[in-house]
Amino acid sequence: MQTGDPYKILGLKVGATSEEIRSAYRRLAKKYHPDRNPSASAAAKFIEIQAAYEQLNSGQTASKPDAVEQQYRAQQAQYDQDLEAYKKQRAAAREKLRQQKQQEENYKIAYLQQLKSGKIGRWHRAVAVAGALLFLVLWIDFFLPKKQVPIRVSAYGLHAYSSVDGHLVQLFKSTDERAFWVADYLSQNLPKTQNLRSIETPWLHQVKALNFHDGLYELSVPIHFSFYWAQIWVSLLFLIPVLSWYLASADIIFVAGSFVSRYAILGFMLWFLVSENRFIHLLSFGQL
């Protein structure tokens, strides 16, 4: 089987240069290649173009395209075989990745279930309940009407320190063993004042200020470094166990929230209750 005139097949004039031959071949190959043109006639045309191109490249005057077709079919079969192997390899990799993700998801769900229903879950729930109760206590205590409690000075400091707002403060202690930071120009005059009283919350006894008479005037001075000024902000920390419990999901956020709740927040809650006799104030509803 002869291909005919290779110049005519490639649309060239006799004696075309090698560059013209390559350009014509590329143009026709793009048009009739089976990957671009799926018709049966296109495949036959492409084999004819391939044979004509090889004929002109080899300098032959005639060519049998059977060998070209056989070579093309062999190359196509190898390509199909390689493509099929690649598809299988890719499918295996995807399945392996899917199984790995499924294992990770199963582990997270199992760990979440342990945090929710096991010993750790009961621990977290107890901290969440205690945190919610303390949150309510702090807010109620903060907004209830303040009470005034008479106090007497037992000692005062000799050194002044700088407060966060730039004021100089000194420490003085009352006879009930409480300590207060007040402006340095007032601390040494407090033993001489009349009717010295602390203005504090009625339940947890968080001191806001000191009230006293100076001659004909009644004065009120704020206490520096007092928990009273941070009471609302601190109460928000006690909500972390509650939020991490009700927003629980199988991810690192809940795991971290549970860990922080069970250790950091619980430790802070215990310190809060033990310091300044707050536990006693809490149980006695401020009577002790």
Characteristic terms for this protein:
alpha+beta; 4-stranded antiparallel sheet; 8 strands
Helix content: 55-70%
Strand order of the largest sheet: 1-6-7-8
Assembly type of the shown chains? single chain
The Cα radius of gyration reads: 44 Å
* Series of secondary-structure elements, N-terminal to C-terminal: HHHHHEEEEEHEEEHHHH
| Principal-axis shape | elongated
In the predicted model, the low-confidence regions spanning at least 5 consecutive residues are: none
Structural commentary:
- With 288 residues, the protein is of the alpha+beta class.
- The chain folds into 3 domains: 1-112, Helix Hairpins (Orthogonal Bundle); 113-139 and 232-283; 145-230, no CATH class.
- The protein is built from 10 helices and 8 strands.
- A 4-stranded antiparallel β-sheet has the order 1-6-7-8, with no helix packed on it. Strands 2, 3, 4 and 5 form a 4-stranded antiparallel β-sheet that branches.
- A hairpin with a 4-residue loop joins strand 4 and strand 5 (179-183).
- Helix 8 (240-246) packs antiparallel against helix 9 (252-274).
- The longest helix has 53 residues, at 65-117.
Gist of the model:
It is built from ten helices and eight strands.
Task: Give the SSE map.
Layout: H1 6-10, H2 18-32, H3 40-58, H4 65-117, H5 119-143, E1 147-150, E2 153-156, E3 161-162, E4 168-174, E5 179-183, H6 184-187, E6 194-200, E7 207-214, E8 217-222, H7 231-237, H8 240-246, H9 252-274, H10 278-283
Antiparallel strand pairs: 1-6, 2-4, 3-4, 4-5, 6-7, 7-8
Helix pairs in contact: 2-3, 3-4, 4-5, 5-7, 5-8, 5-9, 8-9
